[in-house]
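User: Reviewer 2 asked us to show a designed sequence for the structure in our supplementary figure. I'm pasting the structure tokens here. Could you produce the per-position amino acids so we can include them in the response letter?
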């Protein structure tokens, strides 16, 4: 009888603990500077999550190494459900794939909560560039050997590897110039410090429509509804440049299952919110809510895929 009573008390305590999560503010780490696409998406998500969780959800920017510094901080944090990562392709797959000794294993170091969204990339040049398609751009780089630079938010980023893949596939003559991301990339291209870059559409649509920038190609299988005149890379004969942005929420491995379940349920509710769907439509990304298990499988798939990309013969990832 005494053992049964102890068991019932323990079960009741566990149930109460599950119902009280979260009992204090949460922090979501963004591995990139304020002002970029990740920040524009994360802060509204955090605000909506705070409303649903009944606790503040703070956003902490920890930029560096294509998002790896922020991801490493979460990977090595206490798995209590209060310190999370806005994980993206760069720090959950791409950048670690380029490192000899990455500071974490993207598959083993995290407890996936849920995927958030996916979106395409644009190849961008200044509006006064003489090229109006990718063939003209490649020819232009060859006519100016050693003088064409492309920007990225860091070595090992999606942007870096995708641009090097483009060089390999087309013979374009370009040099990598890494920045800290966000507004620095836009300023570099608009100011003429670099001549091209691959980036998410949303921060640049206004400048494209104003003629200050020109989009020459979009990744993915179909054209972007916001820019229907911009052809895909495939349409221009550049195949295999299968890159896209993706975002999700993870915590440190070993996070309590009840915390994962609660966060996943609230995240999916946030992603179904009409205001969030309107925001994502403006950002030209597609919400991809799902289970923690589905996101875990996707991270593992992308981790393997980018490791293969990083080992492509002749691909230059050294600066």
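Assistant: Here is a per-position design you can include in the supplement:
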């Amino acid at each position: 009888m005494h053992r049964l009573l102890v068991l019932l008390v323990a079960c009741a305590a566990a149930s109460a603990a599950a119902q009280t999560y979260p009992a204090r503010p949460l922090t979501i780490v963004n591995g990139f500077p304020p002002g970029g696409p990740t920040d524009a998406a994360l802060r509204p998500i955090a605000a909506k999550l705070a409303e649903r969780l009944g606790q503040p959800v703070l956003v902490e920017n920890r930029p560096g190494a294509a998002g790896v510094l922020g991801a490493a901080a979460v990977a090595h944090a206490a798995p209590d459900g209060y310190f999370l990562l806005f994980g993206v392709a760069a720090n959950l797959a791409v950048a670690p794939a380029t490192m000899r000794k990455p500071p974490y294993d993207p598959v083993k170091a995290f407890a996936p909560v849920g995927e958030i969204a996916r979106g395409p990339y644009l190849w961008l040049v200044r509006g006064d560039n003489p090229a109006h398609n990718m063939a003209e751009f490649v020819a232009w780089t060859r006519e100016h050997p050693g003088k064409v630079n492309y920007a990225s938010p860091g070595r090992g980023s999606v942007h870096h590897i995708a641009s090097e893949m483009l060089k390999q596939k087309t013979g374009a003559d370009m040099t990598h110039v890494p920045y800290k991301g966000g507004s620095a990339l836009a300023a570099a291209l608009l100011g003429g410090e670099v001549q091209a870059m691959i980036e998410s559409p949303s921060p640049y649509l206004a400048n494209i429509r104003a003629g200050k920038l020109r989009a020459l190609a979009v990744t993915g299988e179909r054209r972007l509804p916001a820019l229907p005149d911009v052809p895909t890379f495939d349409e221009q004969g550049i195949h295999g440049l299968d890159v896209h942005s993706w975002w999700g929420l993870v915590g440190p491995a070993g996070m309590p299952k009840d915390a994962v379940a609660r966060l996943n349920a609230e995240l999916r509710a946030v992603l179904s919110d009409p205001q969030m769907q309107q925001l994502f439509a403006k950002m030209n990304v597609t919400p991809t809510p799902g289970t923690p298990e589905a996101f875990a499988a996707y991270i593992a798939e992308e981790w393997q895929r980018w490791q293969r990309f990083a080992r492509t013969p002749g691909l230059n990832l050294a600066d």
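For the response letter, you might also mention the following. Residues 1-18 have pLDDT under 50 and may be disordered. The chain has eleven helices and eleven strands.
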